[in-house]
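Crash report, auto-generated. Payload:
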Amino acid sequence: MKFCLILKCSKFRFKTNLIKKIVLLKKAYNALVTASKGMVLTLRHFFGSKKDRKVGSVKADNYFKRLEEGTNTIQYPKQKLPIPEVGRYQLDVEIDDCIVCDLCAKICPVDCIAIESIKATQAIGQTSDGSTKRLYAAKFDIDMAKCLYCGLCTVVCPTECITMTNQYDRSVYQLGDLTYHFSDMDQELIDQKTKEFEQQQAEKQAAKAAALKAKEEGNS
Amino acid sequence: MSFYITYIFIAIGLFAFAALFALFGVYAERKVSAFIQDRLGPTETGKFGLLQTLADALKLLQKESIIPQAADKVLFVLAPVIIFVSVYMGFACMPWAPGVASSKINLGLYYFFAILSIEVLGIIMAGWGSNNKYSMLGAIRSVAQIISYEIPAGFALISVVMISQTLDLQEISVQQGVLSAEKVKFLGLWDVTHIGGLLSWNVFKAPHLIIAFVIYFISSLAESNRAPFDIPEAESELVAGFHTEFTGMKFGFVFLAEYSMMFLVSMIAVILFLGAWNTILPNIGSLKLADWTTGTVWGLTWIFIKTLLLVGVQIWIRWTLPRLRVDQLMDLCWKILTPLSFLCMVISGIWRLWVM
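Recovered output after restart:
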């Protein structure tokens, strides 16, 4: 009885071993088959790469279909992807239209716009949409290295003087070169305008003082 | 005295060949990988980027040679030399054409196998000497892998040796073509001694040698640490494996050894299985294609074409198949390849006794 059991046991073990071996061989065979499938796939791509990428608009019907064939590399300076005319990349300011309201600098989430203003002694003119300009822009700097291209500044601008252009390739050698200066005033002009404003303030102060004095004298 | 000059000349020639092959091997590797992945690869340096690897080599030459403070300096400096020299010396026994071999050794295959095993020593020296855990892990994996895969590779080769009855690589080459003195039988049935060409290659001498060839090819991939068996230098886990700490020309030598190894194992596969320098064209009736395309220059051409094709397949495999896990690697070696190669050896014995 016992002997029979051992025999049965060993028979069973032999059977499971055999099954294990068959499973292993099947696994090896499957590995070979899948490997060869992969090899055929890469070989197809290897020979398919004779065709270079033709650069076309993403709006084309077969744009994604075309990516399947040939190489995908766009050789950048030689080839360029077409971009929309109203692309929203680099910021640009039409300083003549700017009323130096400082709204763009205030809304900027990363504070990349720095504006300094000088009050003018009188209205200096009008922007193209008819707003009156009363401030000089002594400083209007945008640090494009900080900009996150959210476009909020272009939304809040009341005169639409700050816009985004379709220029995107602005590589520079110095980080400072990414700070764009839009103010067209030189230091001399700034000094002069500051002085004029101070003078006007002083005159006003003096006139006020004189008026006050005259009033006091009149009262007494 | 003049034979010393010949020796030195041949040694320099082989070194130049190894270096040149490494340069263009790397270029081919980059181009092939690029095409497979739908990229372009190097295009800017020279026409089609042909000078890219030369520029890289120049850069490597100029780099500072850094020896880490905690490293074992003797082992660290010696390791790349041993790795390279062991592979480079493997070139010594190679037959290039009928009657052209750098060194005629009647134990050629044995010598080749022995000298390539020394590379393991260099790898473990590099790993231990770097005193870096990544290097150490990489070296341990590499050694475990190379030593394991030498067994199926060795038995696959022995099954050929049992058929050809010699270890002399030149002799083995001669037996696989029209120059053979013995009878050559296609699959043991059809006498192709005077037909030659493709039909008299060792792979077609006996059907089980095709399996032996596949086994040897897979193990040779593992021995030269190439994908899908490149866990010793698995970039995603071990930085660069055993050569993490090497810089400049020391790294260059390890690299050179890797590519020379690729060429060498492919060449051994060609010599033992794919008819060495014998032509692929058989004699058809009065069209003596095999006789016309056998000779020194033809031999060189054939062996180069065949070897480079195999190297191409190695590159192709590297950029297709994903890396194996350590346990999968060992499973493949010990549970599948080793038994199969034993079987091949046994069949070889039977074949030699009863069929040939």
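Post-recovery validation: The mean pLDDT of chain B is 85.
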